[in-house]
Design brief:
86 residues; single chain
Length: 86
Amino acid sequence: MAIHSQKTQVGESAPGLVYDPDPDGVRLHVSADKAVYLGNGNMTAANGYLLTENTKLDLFLAPNEELYALSTEGRATVYVLATMNQ
């Protein structure tokens, strides 16, 4: 199993790509230093999934899916730990 970690800054103007697609799918552990909304590249604060500050979320991205985040509180840092079967 391969493990990959990263942090990404996202803002208020448009969703920022948090994790690139993986052809085999990937399990993610996500947290942020401010509240952010998660979803696809077209999501907004009105339809995104709210991840509150310092909350952890585990999710599985299906093959070739991308994960985006958007902040409504200025710039936010999103932390991602990915575990991949390789």
